[in-house]
Design goal:
This protein has a domain of 195 residues: Glycogen Phosphorylase B (Rossmann fold, 3-Layer(aba) Sandwich). Helix content is 42%, strand content 14%. It is built from 21 helices and 16 strands. Helix 9 packs across helix 10 and helix 9 packs across helix 11. The protein is globular, with a radius of gyration of 23 Å. Its EC number is 2.4.1.-. It is an enzyme of class 2 (transferase). Pfam families: UDPGT.
Length: 532
């Protein structure tokens, strides 16, 4: 990549697009300093400027933007710039979202970094990042020169309110710490998945020293301070094989977590007291210092701008607490065989359901053959048991790909939730006091399941085979248990109690509000770890 001039760094204001229209061309760029000089928000002398730097993709951008919105809701003294480093093929996915946020939140600006040359595996494949997570780390390193130039320009701004006090990054962009160290800018990590997984990440360097065997080859449980014993094979999937490239990235990032100015967590102390205590006492980093942990959650962003779609209208016609909502995240996909088994289970259970379903993965042989025969998307009816849709049409609705999850969970008709055990989804269900069946699929979800289902007994869980398959008998049994049994009622009561604890944490003087105030004070101080 050639030399990059300051003019290449732009703060882009994207106008909202009318519904149904494609995003327009990005407006003519401005230098960052030119853009902020005309901003009434950044002109205010008492503003504390924080930069957030998400890794590519809508989900990672969402997480940090929601953090920004959450902080700004409680601390108007902040202003936030979000750095966008997504490759060109991902911009159509995020541009409408950026437009919406820009129009609704004048204290959040977006700065697009120049494009970098992508490896061949990413330059043509729109799913390259999800297919090869190691590329997130590689892409971050490619962007470090751009990041350095952008932050340098911000730090040289003439007005103090324009100079950033801190950089907030996510797990995959840990190499940004090399840049911020050179610029003496404090770096904070945002961890959206709770403190049990965070404890595991912090403890990974210690585990690496204790054994030369990969976790996938270990029998028995792994003991991590503050975390219930967990089978080694249920640790976060990217930690399992120490010979893999991704393991090396995770090990490096886990070390950098402990070197940061602070760890921001989407959780609250009452739901994870042991993990929070273990991290805070330094037990997860026995050979070094542990940065402050700020438990400021739960971060639940209301769907204020979501239009009422077909699914919400359908829910309006259903009895109170009668519908089982099923959604498995933006990356949760099942084989054709598993989808058929789920359909059999739903029919057998007799419950009302709203099911968000995605096509099977491209390498699914049954789906691939169906697609070849139809020369198009064959549709879910080709996978479901014959007549399933017709027989369940009075009590079930199947949606392709997406539903407004927060709005659905808060609808009076929803009485249960089946989730992939993503932490954000569990927090959204908790906030709505909806009982949950967890079905972990990847990443740290089995570790979260070990705590929430087996230790805390806050949720129910499916029992899967060694290969991850769940039978119709097993799933139908869990559904009936949640929706129709005394055990399900007890889970609902425990969820309601924890919901009350969450709301107390976010009330005036609550633990999360106190942690948030401490975090903002830390931002304002602009102090590096070694200066503290």
């Amino acid at each position: 990549m050639g030399a990059v001039t300051p003019d290449a760094f732009v703060r882009v204001a994207i106008k909202p697009q009318p519904a149904g229209e494609a995003p327009s061309q990005v407006p003519a760029p401005q230098r960052y300093t030119e853009a902020v000089s005309s901003s009434p928000v950044m002109e205010k002398a008492d503003k504390c400027h924080v930069v957030m730097y998400p890794s590519p993709g809508r989900a990672h951008l969402n997480s940090l933007v929601e953090l920004a919105q959450f902080l700004l809701r409680h601390h108007s003294c902040l202003s936030v710039t979000v750095l966008i480093s997504s490759p060109p093929h991902l911009l159509p996915v995020i541009t409408p979202y950026i437009s919406s946020v820009s129009s609704a939140n004048p204290s959040i600006a977006f700065l697009h970094l120049p494009s970098v040359s992508l490896p061949p595996s990413l330059s043509t494949a729109p799913t390259g990042f999800s297919d090869n997570p190691a590329m997130y780390f590689e892409f971050a390193r490619l962007n470090n020169p751009n990041l350095h130039q952008a932050l340098s320009e911000m730090l040289s701004a003439s007005k103090p309110s324009q100079k950033p006090k801190a950089l907030v990054i996510d797990f995959y962009y840990s190499s940004a710490a090399e840049v911020t160290a050179a610029l003496h800018l404090p770096t904070y990590y945002f961890h959206p998945a709770g403190t049990n997984p965070l404890a595991a990440f912090l403890y990974l360097p210690t585990l690496h020293k204790l054994t030369t065997t990969s976790l996938k080859d270990l029998d028995g449980n792994v003991d991590i301070p503050g975390v219930p014993p967990i089978p080694a094979k249920h640790m976060p999937s990217r930690m399992l094989d120490r010979s893999s490239r991704i393991y090396g990235h995770f090990l490096e990032t886990s070390t950098r977590l402990a070197e940061s100015a602070g760890l921001i967590c989407n959780t609250f102390e009452a739901i994870e007291p042991r993990a929070v205590k273990a991290i805070s006492q330094g037990l997860c980093v026995p050979d070094g210092r542990t940065p402050p942990v700020y438990c400021i959650g739960p971060l639940v962003v209301a769907n204020d701008h979501i239009s009422r779609g077909d699914c919400l209208s359908w829910l309006d016609s259903q009895p109170s607490r009668s519908v089982l909502f099923m959604s498995f995240g933006s990356m949760g996909v099942f084989s054709s065989k598993q989808l058929t088994e789920i359909a059999h289970a739903l029919e057998r259970s007799g419950v009302r359901f709203l099911w968000v379903v995605r096509n099977p993965p491209p390498d699914d042989e049954i789906w691939r053959n169906l697609a070849i025969k139809s020369e198009d998307d064959p549709g879910m009816d080709a996978i479901f048991p014959p007549g399933f849709t017709e027989r369940t049409k009075e009590r079930g609705l199947v949606l392709k790909s997406w539903a407004p999850q927060v709005a659905v969970l808060n609808h009076d008709s929803v009485g249960g939730f089946v989730s992939h055990c993503g932490w954000n989804s569990v927090m959204e269900a908790l906030w709505a006091s909806v009982p949950v069946i967890v079905w972990p699929l990847f990443a740290e979800q089995k570790l979260i399941r070990a705590y929430l289902a087996w230790d805390l007994k806050l949720v129910l869980s499916v029992a899967e085979s060694e290969g991850g398959f769940v039978t119709r008998d097993e799933f139908a049994g869990r559904v009936t248990e949640l929706m129709c049994s005394e055990k399900g009622r007890e889970v609902r009561e425990r969820m309601a109690e924890m919901r009350n604890a969450a709301r107390e944490a976010l009330s005036e003087g609550g633990s999360s509000r106190v942690a948030m105030a401490k975090l903002v004070d830390s931002f304002k101080s602009g102090m590096m770890r070694e200066e503290e």
